[in-house]
Amino acid sequence: MTDHPPTADQAPAAPAAVRRPLVPGAGVLALLAAAWLAAMLWTTEGTVGWAVNRDDFTVVFAAQALPGVVSAVLVAAAAVGLCAVNLLAARRGRGGSDMREVPVGWPARLATAGGCGLLLGAAVATLVALGYDKLPSATAVAVTVGAVAVAGGALAALPWARAVAAGLSGALGIFAVTLLLNKFSHDLSQLYGARDSAASRVTANHWLALTISVLSGLVTGVLGYAYLRRQRGATAPPRWPAYLLAGSLGGLLAAATELATRLGGAGLLRAAGRVSEADGAYLDYLNTARINRALVIIFVGAIVALVLFGRTLKPAEAADPTGAAEPAQDQPGQHIRAAGGPDPAPTR
Question: Are 305 and 247 in contact (CB under 8 A)?
Answer without folding.
Answer: yes
